């Protein structure tokens, strides 16, 4: 089905979104060319975004280094090895009316299209409509952006202190959770999250034509 057919049927207008992304890319390139000092400043800010001091505790067992963030009235944490950077102020997020609920919108990261998604729908809750920072995640290169309300800190947590996921979670949701901290933070399973097909979308030129 073409982008035009989907638009008529109430689905996402992929062609329009792709055109807006091209315009954003051109504007971003022009801005960086005109002000290289500002570009360097932004890169430095992104590099510092994960450089907060770690909370160290006397604990036994393997330690997890986690980025703690809040989204949709729920606290989450994800291992830092999956978090490549934090966009404190995404330049532009392009929404797609009619898109699947987890897909918040599209943005550009270093000239590449990045899908920004919400975690709440994966756990059976409505997606919030607020804006906030975006965690860029992937095993070695950017694959997804996770929208957050706030990014709290980088912290250490002993794996053997995690509680089992609550029985109220369905089987699919439980695969996304390594455990729950005693403070009620959902520690996400990075590999499972990045392998969840609900968070990946086809943005190819052929798909949006």
Explain how this protein is built:
With about 210 residues, the protein is α+β, with helices and mostly antiparallel strands. The protein has a domain of about 130 residues: OB fold (Dihydrolipoamide Acetyltransferase, E2P), CATH 2.40.50.180. About 25% of the residues lie in helices and about 25% in strands. The chain has six helices and ten strands. The strands form two sheets. Strands 8-1-2-10-9 form a five-stranded mixed β-sheet. A five-stranded mixed β-sheet has the order 3-6-7-5-4, covered by helices on one side. It holds the Pfam family CheW. It comes from Archangium violaceum Cb vi76. One of its GO terms (biological process) is chemotaxis.
Overview features:
single chain, 209 residues, alpha+beta, OB fold (Dihydrolipoamide Acetyltransferase, E2P), five-stranded mixed beta sheet, 10 strands, 25% helix, 27% strand, disordered N terminus, disordered C terminus
Summarize the structure.
This protein is an alpha+beta fold. It has helices at residues 3-8, 14-34, 36-48, 171-174, 190-194, 205-208, and strands at residues 63-71, 74-79, 83-87, 103-109, 112-117, 134-137, 144-147, 150-158, 177-180, 186-188. The chain has a domain at 63-195: OB fold (Dihydrolipoamide Acetyltransferase, E2P).
Described by the principal axes of the CA atoms, the overall outline is: globular
CATH class of the domain at 63-195, named Mainly Beta
Distance between the termini: 10 Å
Gross CATH architecture of the domain at 63-195: Beta Barrel
Beta percentage is 25-35%
Uncertain segments are 1-8, 205-209
Strand order across the largest sheet: 8-1-2-10-9
Give the CATH superfamily of the domain at 63-195. Answer: CheA-289, Domain 4
Order of helices and strands: HHHEEEEEEEEHEEHH
Radius of gyration: 18 Å
Would you tell me which CATH topology of the domain at 63-195 applies? OB fold (Dihydrolipoamide Acetyltransferase, E2P)
Q: What is the structural class?
A: alpha+beta
Approximate helicity band: 25-40%
Q: In DSSP terms, counting alpha (H) and pi (I) runs of 4 or more, how many helices? A: 6
Count of DSSP strands: 10
| Mean pLDDT over all positions | 79
Major β-sheet profile: 5 strands, mixed
Protein name: CheW-like domain-containing protein
Pfam families: CheW
Organism: Archangium violaceum Cb vi76
GO biological process, one term: chemotaxis
């Amino acid at each position: 089905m073409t982008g035009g057919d989907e638009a008529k049927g109430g689905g996402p207008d992929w062609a329009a979104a792709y055109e807006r992304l091209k315009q954003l890319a051109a504007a971003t390139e022009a801005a960086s060319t005109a002000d290289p000092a500002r570009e360097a400043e932004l890169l430095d800010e992104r590099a510092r975004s994960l450089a907060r001091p770690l909370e160290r505790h006397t604990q036994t067992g393997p330690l997890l280094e986690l980025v703690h963030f809040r989204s949709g009235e729920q606290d989450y944490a994800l291992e830092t090895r999956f978090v490549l950077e934090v966009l404190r102020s995404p330049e532009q997020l392009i929404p797609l009316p009619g898109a699947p609920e987890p897909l918040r919108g599209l943005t550009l990261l270093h000239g590449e299209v990045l899908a920004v998604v919400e975690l709440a729908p994966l756990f059976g809750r409505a997606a919030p409509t607020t804006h906030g920072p975006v965690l860029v995640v992937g095993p070695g290169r950017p694959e997804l952006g996770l929208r957050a309300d706030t990014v709290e800190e980088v912290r250490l947590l002993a794996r053997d202190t995690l509680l089992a996921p609550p029985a109220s979670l369905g089987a699919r949701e439980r695969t996304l959770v390594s455990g729950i901290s005693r403070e009620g933070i959902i520690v996400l399973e990075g590999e499972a999250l990045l392998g969840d097909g609900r968070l990946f979308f086809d943005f190819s030129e052929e798909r949006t034509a």
